[in-house]
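Thread: sanity check for a docking pose with zinc ion

Original post by kr_44:
Hi all, I'm comparing my docking run against an independent structure prediction. Below are the sequence and the ligand SMILES. Could someone generate the full complex and paste the structure tokens? I mainly care about where the ligand ends up relative to the chain.
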Amino acid sequence: MKIHAFKAFLTMALFTGISSVWAQTPASTGTPVNNYNYHDAFAPNFYTKNGTSTRTASGQPGVDYWQNRADYQLTVKLNNTTNELVGTDEITYTNNSPDKMSFLWLYLDQNLFKNDSRGNAVVPLTGSRNGAQGQVFDGGNKIKSVKIISGGKTKTEVTAKYIITDTRMQIFLPQELAAKGGSVKVKIEFSFIAPFEGSDRMGVLETKNGKIFTIAQWYPRMCVYDDVKGWNTAPYLGASEFYLEYGNFDVKITAPANHYVVGSGELVNGVEVLSAEQLKRYKEAQQSDKTVVIRSAAEVASTANTNATAEKTWHYRITNARDFSWASSPAFILDGAKINLPSGKKSLALSAYPVESSGNDAWSRSTEYVKASIENYSKRWFEYPYPAATNVAGNEGGMEYPGIVFCGWESKGEDLWGVTDHEFGHIWFPMIVGSNERYFAWMDEGFNTFINSVSSVDFNKGEYKQKAEDLHENAEYYTSPKLETVLSSPDNMKERNIGVLCYAKPSAGLVMLREQILGEERFDKALRTYVERWAYKHPTPDDFFRTIENVAGEDLSWFWRSWFINNWRFDQGINSIKYVKNDPAKGVVITVENFDKIPMPIVLDVKTKSGKVTRVKLPVEIWQRNNSWSFKHNSTEEIESVTLDPDHVFPDYNESNNVWKAGNGKIEKDIVLDAYIGKYVTANSPLTVELSEKNSVLNAELPNYPKFSLDPVANEKDTFESGRAGVKLKFNEAKTGFDMTLTGNGQVIPFTKK
Ligand SMILES: [Zn+2]
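Reply from moderator J.T.:
Ran it for you. Here is the predicted complex with zinc ion included:
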């Protein structure tokens, strides 16, 4: 009877012990404060919704994925004196959605530059790059007519009703547009005066040989209708960029005859607009790996100030693009070179810049940069799809469009490489992978900044290679409590935080993921897959997270939560070391604590007295249920130092606890367990308790029970306990026996050594 009662009680103690361990909250370590909560970091159900038939759980476009389409025929005429542009915008809009439509939404981005625009209202008094920088002029779109065109051979044009609200225009359709393939043609006559500084994305720059017009956000553009929000109509306020549909563009630009016009895509009528000599050089450039001058400084000087009343019309075309931009100037020097693509196809790198920007330390190397940048990204991520890539010197800091970018005319050397490589990197994000920039700038700026970091290592044997980032130095910059989260939209964060939150922080996150968490091969494969899956489509943040997790085969919810969803902080520290049995020859136990919200793998260097350094790496999983972690390292001599994150690859904002040093670091006493080991019996029952030792831990074994470990009780000599088993063992001085207390009921059973 008694033995049964004893067994039953112990079984119960084992069970309640186990369940109470599960329910335990992490023990506080006193000072310093530990903010880590492993349940927050590793909680299940990261995704707030399951996959759908349009966006699957694995991060792919689903079988029912749809996307609408906008094809544009644009004509425009530039007035070199008044800076006015007058044009016609003919849009063929195809509704592939499952919904009927009775109205359309378009963007009129030039309305940002109207005096009373919402964007102007939110520009602070100082320190902003947005808006028209105080220029007083008659800005904004003037809409002359909006018509719906129907019919095949016998075209009819019906004037449509529309409402303009700030930078948006809603057009009401005379007939409902059918779902799943319905198509409508809209024709809009528009004009506007180009601002000198167009929110740092377009503008007019005066040079000695005439004005440079860099023209963008210039024609009424379709808003995106998607399966996420329906119509995406968030206004253009300045800070947040764009979200646009794909389609083909056919564009005719009329400018004074002494201008050279460059644009997105392919020049269709070179024969008409170029001189015979220029056309010959243009074709030479298409075959040459070395830069060929197509329009020289001397030619610019001879025609720049001619009284040009005559005009030329330049015809450009680009297919499968989300936008069209262009630039025009009598001041343009033009040079070009061939771009070699992985498939064997060729494209053409071009640079257009004024004589003020020329020189081998400046824009005369631009074409070399464009070619290198595009060849590299094509090789690493996805092949460049457009027939040309043009870099234009303008008064923007740097701005990207399909097949054409505007970079600062004063940029030189490494700066010019950096901005050119960055703006052309945008061809991949967001021009090919068409994410919603208005809300998720990190998905284009951040991803692009990341691919730029790899590109700069590759370029010209590392000519402009940056030294590896010190994440300890930058930890405060990335995780200051004053920051919003990476997932905030640029319109929803302080303008000064855009640089870190949209560019540097997401990029540093991808570098960590690539170099520390997944490794280059797995990460690159996952990112390439994301680009391939979502090329010319509209991915959301979840589509990205799911693709990376599915291709790499890891649950990275802890990482997304730490770095993207929340603005968490990271601080690992070394508490103490302990020699096994107090003998350095037998190895060392090292205890690391995670003090703040972000978990990360452990990387540390152990240096012994003789100078030998060993690197130890532990996976992030150790933090799934622990705030501190002890592990044994098989060293055979005294430890000189232990250094956490020796390469500064994790954003540890508190470096003061990262190094343990002999002399001032804490060495804990190991309790030598030899004396306790053995078999113990009790007079009360035929039960035997066997105590053994493994890795300095005392283990107990009873017949028919799971083995459990015993921890020394602080400040109680020769005493051990197991919360799990619900027992406490107090040895006598001679270690010839112990009293076992059942912590559940306080019953004491004496055992003696066999
Ligand atoms: Zn950018």
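The chain has a mean pLDDT of 93. Hope that helps with the comparison, let us know if your pose agrees.
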